[in-house]
Every structure is written in C-alpha cells, then in structure tokens.
Amino acid sequence: MKCRKCGGTAVIELRRHNAAFCQPDFVEFFRNQVREAIRKHRMFTPDEPVLVAVSGGKDSLALWEVLIAEGYRTTGLYLDLGIFDYSVESKARCEKFAAAHGVPLIVTAVADAVGAPVPVIKDVTRRPPCSGCGLSKRYLMNRVALEHGFPVVATGHNLDDEAATLFGSVMHWQTDALPRQSPALAATHPKLVRRVKPLYRLSERETAAYAFLRQIDYIVEECPFAAGATSIAHKEILSRMEEASPGAKHNFLFGFLDRARAAFERVENVALQECARCGQVTTGTVCAFCKLADQVKRAT
Amino acid sequence: MKVILRNPKREVQVAGGRRVKDVLRELDIIPETVLVIRGDTLVTADQTVTDDDTIELRPVMSGGSGSREAACGEARAR
Predict the structure, then answer these.
(1) How far apart are CA A217 and CA A196, in angstroms?
(2) CA A69, A72, A75, A78 torsion: positive or negative?
(3) What was the ipTM of the complex prediction?
(4) Is B46 helix (H, G, I), strand (E, B) or coil?
(5) What pLDDT sits at residue A269?
(6) Whose CA is closest to B71, among A154, A69, A127?
(7) A4-30: pLDDT as tens digits
(8) In the prediction, which pLDDT does A218 show?
(9) What is the per-residue pLDDT for B78?
(10) CA–CA separation, A197 vs A53, rounded Å?
C-alpha cells in the first residue's frame, strides 16, 4: 500500500478517508486535524495557557505532544484515581513525559479531594466505578483549572469516544444530553472553564498510531474497571459498523454536529448557582461532588 | 509466526506466508480495533508476514467514564 501524498510505503490505511500514509505524512495529517479542530471551534489562542488533562494513555499524551509541538503554553493535569498498579503506572508515564518535554505537571489525588480512592468510592456508592470516577474527574478538572488561572481544559476525547457517547445518548433518547455534546463547551458561568476536545476529528486507532509512531510511552493496559463499561460495548458495536461501512462513525458524529445537534437546543431554564459547600457551579444547593464526598465520609 | 496479544498479554503461534488481514481474520479481530506492529513500525493489512515474523496486535480501544456525561449535576450545568 502506498502513501497518498508521496507514494512511499504506507504505515497506516485510513479507510474512511480512502487513503494511506507513510509515517511523516501521517504525522502531518494528524496535526492538521488537530489544527482544524482548534480553528473551527475557536478552542484557544496561542496566548492562552491550556490545562491538558492527562491519564497516561495514548489519547491525552498524543494531544499534549501535538499542542507542545504547535507551540501552545501547556500544563498537564494528572488526576490520581488510586486504582492500584494501574494508577501508579499511568502517573509514572505522565511524569516521564512531562520531564522529557520540560513542561509542568499538576498532580491531584482524588482520594485527597473526595476522602477515598475510586475503588472505595465504587464500593460505597454501589454504582458502576466509572460513575463516581467520571464525576470526580469533571469536577476536579474544573476546580484545578480555576485555582491555577487556566481559562480552558483540553481533554483527549477522540472520534470514537464522542461517537460512543452520542450512541449511548441516542439509545436512551437523552434529549437533554444531546445539545451538550460538543467539541467545545463554553464557559457559561464565571466559575466554569471552557472544556475542549481537540482530537474529536481523529479516531482511536489514529491516536494510537500517532502515539506509537511518535514513540510516546503510554500505558497500553486498560483500566481494570473499564471491562464491561457501557461505553466499551457501544464502541464495539460501532467498530463492527465501521468495518462493514468505512466512515460510519465519522458520518454518525459529524452528521449530528453539523445537522442535528441544533434541533435539540432549546432555552434551558436551568439556574446555575454556587454550591453551598465548595462554591463550585451546580444546579442544586449542594453539588453532586460534595454529596459524593459526604457519602464516602459516612461510610469510611 | 508469533503474534503478541494484549489485555491480558499473551502469545499465539499462527501460520505465516500470508497477508496481515488474513491473520486478523483467523484470530477474529476487527482491523479497526488494533495497531499491527512489526519491530519499530506499523504494517498495513495488505502486507505479507512470514513464518519468521513477530507481530504485536495492540488494542486501541479505551474508555469508561468518558461516556454518559449527563449523569451528574456539573455536566447539566453546561
């Protein structure tokens, strides 16, 4: 198979683009997709400091590497979930990456903020581990960004992540969730920072290929709690559709963003206020994170 | 030829002298879900592998808490 641009030996085939690329041209293709995402959604400017949420996995470290290469002022944020060896190894990958690139890394432990690590939160709440974990991550990303003066947090969500989330929302007809699915979420309150997903145009396989080809040392092992997660099941379904019909995932997500999302938007009469305990933004009196911390405190 | 699989990490032996896509089909692996690594580079599904080759099939799927963002109050506040 030949590279579409130079005719050299291809290292990756992108069936949805009906193309194949050699290593240098794939790297350029990848970075072009990130540039286009940042430009199209005005995610951030070269003057703004960007907090990059990193997990030690392929997506977030690939994102961080591209943003550094593009000259953005970045700081990493690693949230230590306390998930046994998985967290120890993923944190080590982030620290190694930050040191090698000479960029700062903030480390925050979920256990310090909530009162217990994710495995204990799972037992206390008796809910799927991804539930308390996701809640804690979203809350802490925003809080840490505010505390350190970052106007924007970038996450490594890719096309497959976004397509799987959309699939889940549609399967349950969560019409309130649909308008909030976007590559860029604006700061709708002084205490909410912008949240952006510069990899949303790139598939999971493309981010993995980029990380490998750029010799980024990422954690290949999956989170031990991810097995059986609904999002994984949805990704498997979508991958089978993609195999039968290249471009299916891309068309599903981009068709929604370009043509359907607006139809679900309506004026939401949701009053945003500050949590009586922690001061972060919530729709109730006490935010979901503080309620979770209370629950953990009572049980431990 | 030797094939290295992940999660959990293990090795299997399969016949070489055929294309990568044929190896993937035998192992019932969707090409979209893995990187095919030989040495320090990636190989495309149309390339031929020999009995002496070692390839790693590295899964690309990750996930968990990224989905179902609507589950909490902070997401609703957006």
Answers:
(1) 24
(2) negative
(3) 0.87
(4) coil
(5) 65
(6) A127
(7) 999 999 999 999 999 999 999 999 999
(8) 97
(9) 45
(10) 10
Of B63, B69, B76, the CB nearest to A235: B63
Give me the residues of A, 201-230, that contact B with CB < 8 A.
203-205, 207-209, 212-213, 220-223, 225-226, 229-230
Chain A partners within 8 Å of B37 (Cβ): 212
Contact by Cβ (8 Å): A33, A202: yes
pTM: 0.93
A251 in contact with B, Cβ within 8 Å: no
Chain B residues within an 8 Å CB radius of A181 = 69
Contact A160/B at CB under 8 A = yes
Which helix (H) or strand (E) segment is B5 a member of?
Answer: strand B2-5
**Residue in B closest to A284 by C-alpha:** B73
What per-residue confidence (pLDDT) applies to B77?
44
Q: What is the mean pLDDT of each run of 10 residues along chain A (300 residues)?
A: 97 96 98 98 97 97 98 98 96 98 97 94 89 93 98 97 96 92 95 97 97 97 86 91 96 97 79 94 95 94
pLDDT at A172: 94
The CA distance from B55 to the nearest CA of chain A, in Å, is 14
Q: For each successive 10 residues of chain B (78 residues), what is the average pLDDT? A: 91 96 95 94 96 96 52 37
- Residue whose entry in the numeric block shows the structure tokens 């939401």: A268
Q: Are A221 and B77 in contact (CB < 8 Å)?
A: no
